[in-house]
Every structure is written in C-alpha cells, then in structure tokens.
Amino acid sequence: MEVNEVVIVIIGGTLIMLILMIFIISFFFIHSRRQQAHKLEKAAMEATFNEEILTAKNEVQENTMKHIARELHDNIGQLLSLVKIQLNNIDEENPGLKRVTDSREYLNKALTDLRSLSKTLNSENILQAGLVKAIAFELERLEKTGFVETSFENQCSLVNIEPKISIIVFRIFQEMVQNVIKHANAKKLSVSLYQNTEVYTLELTDDGQGFEVEKKFRSNGFQSGSGLANLKNRAELINGKLDIASTPGQGTTLKLSIPINRPINHDESSPG
Amino acid sequence: MLSHITEVKFALIYQLVLYGSMVAGILFRKSIFPSSRYIFYLILITSVVETIGLFSLKLYDKPASVIYDFFQPIELILIGLYFLGKYQEQVNKVLSKVLVGIGILFLIAYHIIREFYELKAYYDFLIVAFIVSILSILFLIEVLRYHLDKELLKYEVFWISTGILVFHAGSFVLMGTVVYVYLLNPKLASQLYSINHLLNIIYYSLITYAFYIQWKSTKSSSSSLEGH
C-alpha cells in the first residue's frame, strides 16, 4: 500500500506535468500562429492605409494644381491680357514710347510663362500631350528660366502607361526637377527615358554638388530626406522604384523605374 | 509509514512553495500591477489559512474546516475580481460577475444547509473549482484574441491564469476521481488525494514566476527611463 501511494503520486504527477506541458506548448503554438497572422494582417492594413493616404494626397494635389492652373489661365491671364490691350491703346495714342514698348515685351513674356506654367500644372494637358511631350515641355520651360541647362533623350518608340500613372510619374519628375533646382546647385540636367524588358526608366542626372544618400536618409530627423522618402513612396504607389545615386561634389542620378506590365489604357502617350 | 512520510513531504513542499510565493509577492509588491494585487492578497490569505490548517492538524489532529468554509468565498471573489480587471469583452465581465455571484450564493446556502443535513464536503470545492476554471478559460481565449502582441513568456497574466486553470481544473478532475474511487476503495482515494499537493506546488510556482517577471519588466522599464 505504501509503495502504491508513491506510485500513484509519481504517475499522477507525471500525468499532470505532461498535460501542463501539452497545454502550454499548444497554447504557445496557437498564439504564435495567430500572432503571425495578426502581424501580416496589420502590415497589410498599414500598407493599404498608407497607399490610400498617398492616393488621397495625390488627388488633393492634382485638384489644387488644376485649380491654380485654371486661376492662372482664366483670371490672371485675362487680367494681363486686359493690361496688354491697355498698353496697345496707349501705344496707338502715343506711339514710340519706350517704356510702353518695354512693358509690352515684359508682359508678353509674363503671359507666355504663365500659360506654360498653367499647362504643366493642369493634369488634363499632361494627359492630352502624353508623358514624353509633357516632360519635354517642362524641361523647355525650365531652360527658359535660365536656372539650368537641360537635355532630353527619349529612346522609347512608344510609351504605354495608364493615364493615372502618367500623371503620378510626371509629378514625381516635376518634384525631382524641383529638388535639382532647389538643392543641387547644378548647371546641367540631363534627362533620358528608356525601356528595358519589364520597365521604363526615367533617369535624371545633374552635375550639382551631390550628397551622401545614406546619411541624408539616416540623419537629422524629421525633415531631412523626407522629400526623397516621399518620392520613393510615390514611386512605390505605382509599383515603381526610385534609385538614388549621389556622391558629394559629383552630382546626382535619380532613376525612376515604371513597370510596363501594369493595366494599360491604350489612348495614352505619343512618341517623343 | 512511507505513505505518511510521502504525504507529509508533499504537504511540506507545498507549504514552502506557498510561503515562497508569499515572500516573492511581498518583495515585488511595488511592481505588482493593480489588478494582479488580488492574487497577492489571495496568497497572503491562503498562507494564513494553510498555516492555521497545519497547526490545527498537528495540535488537534483534525482539519480547521470552518476556516476553509470562510476561505472559499473569499478565494472566489478575489479570483473573480482579478479576472474582471483583465477581461476585454463585456460579455465575459458580466459572465464572471454572474458566475461568482452564483458561486457565493451556492456556498452560503451549502454551508447553512450542511449545518442541518449531512452533505458531503466536496460539492463546495467542486463548484468553486468549476467556476474558477471557466473564468480562466475565458481569459485564455481572450489572450488568443486580444493579446496577440504579447510575448507569452513575459506575460505574467498568462502564467497566473495557467496556474489557476491547472490547479482548479486539475482539482476538479482529481476530486471527482477521488469521490468515485472512495466508493470502491477509501484508502486508495486518500492516497490519490496527495496529488492535490502537486497541483498546489505547480500553481504557486507559476504565480511566483509571474510576480518575478512582473518585477523584472518594471525594473527594466524604469532603468530604461533613467537611461533617458
């Protein structure tokens, strides 16, 4: 009997420990599986959320730009045209006044710039002209400002990109150009568009002061590199990729890859 | 003789583990989260009750059953309050209140009726074990729903709940078995009951571990704050 009790305790204890172990291991297993699923779900939700935010931002930006373009064209453009008529009248009444002639020249230039700016701001114009022409037009406009000397080489015979994506690509391009003007201190900007098997690549190379890419993304917190990060995010939004190569003192190259095998709208784009 | 020694040994180990848990609770009391304090109070009360029970057994050679009658509702209330503070789902909160309420009413009625009629002393034990097991199962299900961001090894509530479940569900099954075996072989039934000490040892060991990880996490978070 006495031995019996020891045996009972041993068997009972072993059983309890076994059940406890099975319970804990099973619980850990189920918990970790659910945890993985939860993490994946959370990451997917975050990605969708970020994508939606970015899309909304783009839409807001497009609407704002369209509004500004319309204001520039319809209101300010009209006002300047009225001023031009007034100047013409003055010129007819008092011919040969140098101040009037000069003013009319400046005014003509302002009107041309204003119309160009209005065109690049309005996404409908971009869609109408096509991505290649829009890029060429933007570079031409930039060249006229005298900030930087530009060149554009288009190696694609036909660019087939969905219109919505075309606009995003063009806005990314505009922002990259803005970055060159604001930060690069460059004299030359070369742009090329070429096609590989799976992607179109839009490449911008400047001869500016360059920067340390890693350092730019890593250092000094909130603002630093946020413009570039934003560009990268926008590139990801169209399933694209933005590669940045830069060395201090040796300029910068930005490569935007745009996948070809996206849903394509057939009315897009014309050869450059 | 050996039977008696085994019984005493297990009872002694259980007492030591219980006191160890109490000492750990006292040492780490500042780091115990508010709702986990109910478990600390439960251990303090259990230690007192078990000490009185032990002395009663030694001095008068019979268990202090009156003390245990008072202890059972207190245990049920403290565990109920503990889980009430941990549940996320409103249904579980209501259910825990209802179950504990029913349990308390049952215990009071049972103890009163027992004064007049001869009732077996294990029904109260079984009902408490059953209710507490349900409460801990409800919480563990919530862990799989709402606490997926937690690392279980460092999640003290999981270990406390596991301890509670193992002890009470184990006791429920054990008591049922003992009652059944008692009808066939009373001696074997009393031998079987010594397994209860093992369950107690596991229960209080897990609670001690939970107190320890709670203290450790509080310590590491406060030292990281100091670092800043």
From TrEMBL, chain A:
GO terms for cellular component: cytoplasm; membrane. Its cofactor is [4Fe-4S] cluster. Signal peptide: none annotated. It is an enzyme of class 2 (transferase). It is found in: Cytoplasm. It comes from the Bacteria. Keywords: 4Fe-4S, ATP-binding, Cytoplasm, Iron, Iron-sulfur, Kinase, Membrane, Metal-binding, Nucleotide-binding, Phosphoprotein, Transferase, Transmembrane, Transmembrane helix, Two-component regulatory system. SUPFAM superfamilies: ATPase domain of HSP90 chaperone/DNA topoisomerase II/histidine kinase. SMART domains: HATPase_c. One of its GO terms (molecular function) is metal ion binding. Residues 67-262 form the Histidine kinase domain. It catalyses: ATP + protein L-histidine = ADP + protein N-phospho-L-histidine. Its EC number is 2.7.13.3. The chain crosses the membrane at residues 6-30. Member of the two-component regulatory system NreB/NreC involved in the control of dissimilatory nitrate/nitrite reduction in response to oxygen. NreB functions as a direct oxygen sensor histidine kinase which is autophosphorylated, in the absence of oxygen, probably at the conserved histidine residue, and transfers its phosphate group probably to a conserved aspartate residue of NreC. NreB/NreC activates the expression of the nitrate (narGHJI) and nitrite (nir) reductase operons, as well as the putative nitrate transporter gene narT. This is Oxygen sensor histidine kinase NreB. It comes from Jiulongibacter sediminis. The lineage of its organism: Bacteria, Pseudomonadati, Bacteroidota, Cytophagia, Cytophagales.
Automatic annotation (TrEMBL), chain B:
The chain crosses the membrane at residues 12-28, 40-60, 66-85, 94-113, 125-145, 157-183, 195-213. Keywords: Membrane, Transmembrane, Transmembrane helix. This is Uncharacterized protein.
